[in-house]
Fold this protein.
Amino acid sequence: MNNCRPEELMISAIGDLLEDAAHIAVGVLSPIPGSAALLARARNGARVSIIGSTVPEFRTDGGIDLFDAAGQGRVDAFFLSGGQIDGAANINLTGIGTYPELDIRWSGAFGSAYLYFQVPKVILFRDEHSRRTLVKKVDFISAPGVSKKNVYRPGGPYALVTPLCVMMFDRIAGRFTLKSIHPGHSLEEIRDQTGFDFDCPNDVPDTATPDKDTLSLIRGDVARAIANPYPAFAAKMFGI
Amino acid sequence: MPETNFFTDVDALAAAIPDGTKLAIFKDSGVPMAAAKALVRRQAKGLHLVTIPTAGMIVDMLIGAGCVDIVETSGVSLGEFGPAREFANAVKAGKVKIMDSTCPAIYSGLQAAEKGVPFMPMRGLIGSDILKNRDDYAVIDNPLAKDDPIVVVPAIRPDIALIHVALADRFGNLWIGRQTELKVMAHAAKGTFATAEKIIDTNIMEDERLASASIPSLYVNGIAPAPRGAWPLEMPGQYDVDRDEMENYAKLSGSGDGFQTWITDRVFAKSVAAE
């Protein structure tokens, strides 16, 4: 294994999930998914729209244009996160406790309650893998993981990437399956830190580490491009 | 013929926004910070804020200063600078009524209002607790297809859209650049108040390049000059976000005394008005 940092491994792992996405949109507060989208752009020529970027080629008005594009199927991949994510891929961006006067109030749903339905490949990303964040049942469903059959839903959850592993989501079963474990971590640790049940094949491989070319892309083109929407992240991560 | 009011400064403009106004505010970037500070200075009360579609420091500050009764939003955050703690504290304490939404639902509501229709259908939302907690949203059966439930959201008709623009002219027209959502806000609201980096003598509507990204005076009720009127937020194409100032706000807000100190220092102190 080359000398790659945990963030770079997650960028690479998300990038590997984006191989067939022609147009990837990135929301707010998403420096690692944003970097992964830019990696997919550098490798596969994907088009990337980043909410909050003022660079003309990534620019989107972040609003009507983007949501209308998603409504028409013009966005192939998007990222969501949550203060809580549960085993049915429900996400909670609203808060903990009893609504509306919650014990802990987070930002709010943003575009999730719509984009989760519309974008075919929604990758969930969470930078903390613990029983606090990956829970049995979310306190508040900002956006549901699965819908009844008659609800129009071309999109939905595809995968979950955390500092420990990659899980894939089965929309029929409504459950996650462990796909790979990041080097240095174990199944036992994942079970210990996950608040929900998930499926697990007998042999779970290590998450592929980025090869030399990928790593130099991440530290080069990607690092320079992510600095526009996320200057603090780029400075801390890549010294840019 | 109704004419656009030209205010001498942001304080005169803020004085014309009554307590209890349903006020639409655009997400952070080119936002009317100077005007919002003037609302705090005049101790505005009971505002119903509609954030288009999310919000940051401007709304957090108005809530912290006690100007707001209702906040209708898809999310409030200081972005890279951290959580919006005045907002979170006020919601937790029940000091503001929260109407949680999702971004395209707010746009759909504005689009219904600009067309003068009562509601707009939209995809998504079904199965969310957002929908469950919004008594004013409904699920209907698509009347043109079988077994296709779809959400309808009511028209959002703010009393005033309060916006900040790079350029206004003395005929009451505004140039909005790339921020086309400002046009939707102005169309949906009963009236628009704008602060402007610069007010020019030539007519924006007579310049093809400017007119394509404009809000004509038909929609504009009031304009006040506000150079650096979005500071410390960025004004696209003009100036960047003031990171030190934002970090300072992120540090002091949400902490009671710290926020009061910030308000005293940054909203009421004379030196700041001259920035």
Observations:
- Chain B touches chain A through 51 residues (CB under 8 Å).
- The two ends of chain B are 37 Å apart (CA to CA).
- The mean pLDDT of chain B is 95.
- DSSP finds eleven helices and 13 strands in chain B.
